[in-house]
Amino acid sequence: MKAAVYGGIGKIEIKDIEKPKIEQGTVLIKVKTCAICGGDLRTFRFGHKAIKPPIVLGHEIAGEIVEVASDVKKYSVGQRVIVAPAIGCGSCSYCLSGWQNMCYHRTTIAHHYNGGFEEYMLVPAAAIKAGNINYIPDEVTYLEASLAEPLACVLNAQEVIDVKLGNTVAVIGAGPIGCMHAEVARAKGAGKVFIINRSEKRLESTKKFGFDEYICSGKTDAVKEVMNLTDGLGANVVIVTAGSAEAEKMGINMASKMGKVCFFAGLPKDQPTVELDSNLLHYRQITVYGTFSSAPRHNALALEMIRSGKVSARDILTHVVTLDKIVDGMKLVKNRDALRVSVTPCIDEIGDEFKKLPGVKVVK
């Protein structure tokens, strides 16, 4: 079978590798599509300390079950599914309370097991046991379903920060994650939603979502603009999806009294610190949250939000590339010429889906 094998920094090759054999406790899926995450791009460009090549990347996976081990009773051939990548141990306090993403013994698809940039992927027994497979609703295409994993990470963060009815929400970063956060905040009843980004080009590409205000921090003082738009009060909730110290500092400065700030993105490993005015936190009673990854329950909720249209996966997914064009897909993400890119090993099999997503551009 064909697979895009990551061989180290800057190296991804399409290779013929052996199709995975079913093992006790496992499920084999035919990958229909797997979206490119910013983490995939960072690993491709800079490597990752937890990822030892050769390995197949890709953890935003949607596919069809084609084989099931004899001891697995819950799943059957033909079912349309997504696979949550973070696999908890199932016995620690975090797993038992539904926060498998915090498990100290967590393993991850595309880190410890081959991921979805291949024709067939073996879902490991640990993932089956942990309940990491979720069924795709009939109304949701494979292409849309490939966005459930990043949306699940957004929903994890949204559960923590708990946007309230009428809140003013400022989202820093107008990438796919920022747009998802803004859509979820709107669905939860936010009074106003602002999107902030340094690039005016990127902001323009997100105006189709119809958020309340678009602020170009590359041309104006975003903190002052937010204060002006809120009569000097600031934003009740600030979600920082851009992985930069400057963005995190900006987020603190634009938060209201008793505001909540979410650091959704990590900083570069060689520059992991940020200077903050702690008096702002003290006198405004600002709460800062960090959030990371998601649990299987967030993936199930993500599919429902896509099905209901509360999150417009059709607007977020802008490009689809065939497996052999995966490096071109990485370039689209790197150059910010796409909002979200999905990779398919079987474009002919999902051809009908493009009728439901007429705005998606195909690279093959």
UniProtKB/TrEMBL annotation:
The coenzyme or cofactor needed here is: Zn(2+)
| Transmembrane is among the record's keywords | no
Q: Which domain of life is it from?
A: Bacteria
Q: Which UniProt key words apply to this protein?
A: Metal-binding, Oxidoreductase, Zinc
Judged by the first EC level, this protein's enzyme class is: oxidoreductase
Q: Does the keyword Mitochondrion apply?
A: no
* E.C. number(s) listed in UniProt: 1.1.1.14
All copies of the Alcohol dehydrogenase-like N-terminal domain together span 24-127
Entry's Gene Ontology molecular function annotations:
L-iditol 2-dehydrogenase (NAD+) activity; zinc ion binding
One Pfam family in the UniProt entry: ADH_N
Q: Which InterPro entries does the entry link to? A: ADH-like_C, ADH-like_N, ADH_Zn_CS, GroES-like_sf, NAD(P)-bd_dom_sf, Zn_alcohol_dh
**Domain called Alcohol dehydrogenase-like C-terminal: residue spans:** 176-299
Q: Which family does it belong to?
A: Belongs to the zinc-containing alcohol dehydrogenase family.
> Can you name this protein?
Sorbitol dehydrogenase
Organism annotation: Clostridium luticellarii
Gene that encodes the chain: gutB
